[in-house]
């Protein structure tokens, strides 16, 4: 065989190389299909194709593009008007993850079942929505590197500003436009809310202490039980509806009973028995100042005896004290309502003391012997302070001073309350009193000054109107 027959072979090979497309050597990577990313097998071609003439359905392409197994769709008597979800054409944003074991991506169970053919479109639409949701979830879980954003870490939207002209100052003011995502739609009809003209504040407490000491205790001592009850009710005029008026009334009752193991006459003694009423009424003068009138009355309910004796120390309306004053009051409360102070100054004040029990020595109350009452005209001043130090710590203080320019008396009461919870509390009460008419007590350094201090633990209950 002659070699001349093969002399055209190199020429043919070179020609074939030049005829191959240039881009066949460097092919661009083909984007993976959704089914490839989901690692789903491609559905086999159906043996026959069913052609149904129907009106245009915007969801048909979406169903056949996402799942090849859908070969035919029932005729839809009603066509849904909603468009394809916008999220389909946007970067993926991870919003939530939901695990549903009973629903597969390719064959979810229908959530709606109805014998009425008119509702078939609703079943198909619900199915389509569930397929879209599950495909999206499955895609993001298996391909987290393709998820662009997370709903929890999305950047803040750009701020918007607006410019307004102020002719009075010949300036342009640029301010930020604040938009609210969730706008509350105002009701068509206004809801009538009952006005509360009076605000109530009620509190009640029962504190106690107990000590047991065995007879052979090396230091000695006595068993004792102490109980302290306190009820307070405050009523105040609502300043929101009556800004030019001030009215407040406070009623308080305290009772302290203690066992008396060393008392041969009494099993128990009453260490404190006080009923007190305070009232204030005023008309606004300027800012926080009011022209005001205030009144105070106090007495006790039970008989009180001296230790190891049947002699009465005090009883109901023995003593009884009434004080009325005219002047001005300053009232101030901060916006968080944690601190409130009220100061009353009465240049004109009337004070009366009484004792209705003939068995009691009236000179102990500053009343002349042979008289049952004493009246005095002078001046008084009162300061009340309320401070919520913390959510469970409150401090209340009251200072009252009266003088008729011959003698003076004053009271300073302090109450520090620690709330353990809604029903348990610890309370420290300190009452300092000054009375220039009192004589010095024998074998004691106390004369004109008097002091009472009580530390107690117990139950509490309170409520108030806002």
UniProtKB/TrEMBL annotation:
Higher taxonomy: Bacteria, Pseudomonadati, Bacteroidota, Bacteroidia, Bacteroidales
Any single Pfam family the record assigns to this protein: DUF3078
Name listed for the protein in its UniProt record: DUF3078 domain-containing protein
Organism encoding this protein: Heminiphilus faecis
InterPro entries, sorted: DUF3078 (IPR021428)
């Amino acid at each position: 065989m002659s070699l001349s027959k093969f002399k055209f072979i190199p020429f043919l090979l070179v020609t074939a190389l030049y005829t191959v497309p240039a881009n066949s050597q460097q092919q661009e990577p083909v984007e993976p299909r959704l089914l490839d990313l989901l690692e789903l097998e491609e559905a086999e071609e159906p043996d026959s194709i069913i052609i149904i003439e129907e009106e245009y359905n915007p969801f048909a392409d979406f169903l056949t593009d996402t799942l090849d197994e859908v070969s035919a769709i029932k005729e839809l008597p009603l066509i849904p008007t909603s468009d394809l979800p916008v999220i389909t054409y946007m970067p993926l944003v991870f919003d939530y993850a939901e695990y549903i074991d009973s629903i597969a991506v390719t064959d979810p169970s229908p959530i709606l079942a109805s014998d009425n053919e008119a509702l078939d479109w609703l079943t198909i639409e619900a199915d389509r929505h569930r397929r879209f949701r599950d495909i999206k979830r499955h895609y993001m879980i298996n391909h987290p590197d393709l998820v662009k954003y997370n709903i929890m870490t999305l950047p803040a939207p750009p701020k918007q500003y607006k410019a307004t002209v102020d002719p009075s100052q010949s300036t342009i003011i640029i301010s930020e436009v604040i938009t609210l995502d969730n706008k509350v739609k105002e009701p068509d009809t206004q809801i009538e809310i009952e006005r509360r003209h009076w605000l109530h504040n009620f509190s009640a407490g029962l504190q106690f202490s107990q000590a047991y000491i065995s007879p052979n205790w090396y230091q000695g001592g006595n068993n004792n039980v102490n109980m302290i009850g306190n009820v307070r009710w405050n009523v105040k005029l609502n300043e929101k509806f009556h800004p030019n008026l001030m009215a407040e009334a406070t009623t308080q009752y305290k009772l302290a009973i203690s066992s008396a193991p060393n008392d041969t006459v009494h099993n128990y003694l009453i260490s404190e028995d006080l009923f007190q009423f305070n009232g204030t009424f005023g008309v606004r003068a300027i800012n926080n100042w009011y022209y005001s009138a205030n009144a105070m009355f106090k007495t006790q309910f039970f008989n009180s005896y001296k230790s190891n004796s049947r002699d009465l120390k005090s009883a109901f309306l023995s003593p009884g004290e009434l004080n009325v004053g005219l002047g001005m009051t300053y009232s101030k409360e901060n916006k968080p309502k944690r601190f409130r102070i009220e100061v009353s100054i009465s240049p004109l004040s009337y004070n009366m003391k009484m004792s209705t029990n003939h068995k009691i020595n009236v000179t102990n109350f500053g009343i002349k012997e042979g008289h049952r009452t004493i009246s005095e005209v002078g001046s008084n001043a009162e300061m009340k302070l309320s401070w919520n130090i913390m959510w469970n710590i409150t401090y209340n203080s009251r200072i009252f001073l009266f003088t008729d320019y011959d003698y003076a008396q004053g009271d300073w009461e302090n109450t520090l309350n620690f709330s353990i919870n809604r029903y348990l509390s610890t309370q420290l009460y300190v009452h300092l009193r000054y009375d220039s008419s009192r004589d010095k007590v024998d074998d004691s350094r106390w004369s004109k000054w008097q002091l009472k201090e009580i530390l107690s633990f117990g139950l509490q209950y309170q409520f108030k109107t806002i």
